[in-house]
Fold:
Amino acid sequence: MADADEAWVPPSRWPELAGVTPVPQDDGPSPVVPIAYRDDFREVMDYFRALYFAGERSPRALRLTAAAIELNPGNYTVWHFRRLILEALDSDFLEEMNFVDKIAESNPKNYQIWHHKRWLAEKLGPDVANKEHEFTKTILATDSKNYHAWSHRQWVLQSLGGWEGELQYCNQLLEEDIFNNSAWNQRYLVITRSPLLGGMTAMRDSEVDYTIEAILLNPQNESPWRYLKGLYKGENSLLLADERISGVCVKVLKNDWSCVFALSLLLDLLRLGLQPSDELKDTIEGMKSSDPELADADLATAVCSILQKCDPLRVNYWSWYKTTLSS
Structure:
């Protein structure tokens, strides 16, 4: 592929393609809606088809795929053919990774590019893990929610390694933006999958403290509430036994009785059999006092009724939930 400063040279003027007959695209005798391709695109693809149909694995074919990718980085067939050529020529995969990284920087949400990067990383092995982590950091610095970058990063971690600084990276991202749900998701992966941290059993206690601190900074941030529940996935008895969980709900509701996330978690706890503290009872009784209809309601029913008013988008869900409390 020509550098940006170089004038583009059409394949018809490449010396190495002098003997190649281009193969035009066959749209049939009467195409309904023929595509008005640019002349440069049409010429590159006509030459590409000639070598592709011939099954040629050569340096000139590799160069031609680069030209085609420059014009359309999303062409799966071109990328697939390029991989066949790279293997046939026993190419330098590190050099190829540098090539694809340049393309990815301008096309960070292109499925074919990330698939090609994974293929190369599989070939290169663990030695390339840190390089790949640095590259995804670069992409995430401009788009912290880029699904492709996160997916690739998680695959590299689990397949090639590089866990050492990942929790600190999550800390950094959450310090920059506590609402970054992608960083919360990554944090959960790290504490549950990293071979260096001892798993959930070793990490739960400190993670609960970290998460509660984040909740108290901004109770309307849904991500840490969900993360907090995730820390007790499949461990309802531990969830109920940890007084910090109901405690953070009470703290938040004392300042904002309409916080849907606190009410929702509290309702789940009550349904699971939480024995409410006096402070929790007093907090809910205080909320009940503003609505005469709730005077005789038990704690769980009262919380569910409050959610019906505080969360109108899901009023039907909370109405259904209330029926499960009385059944």
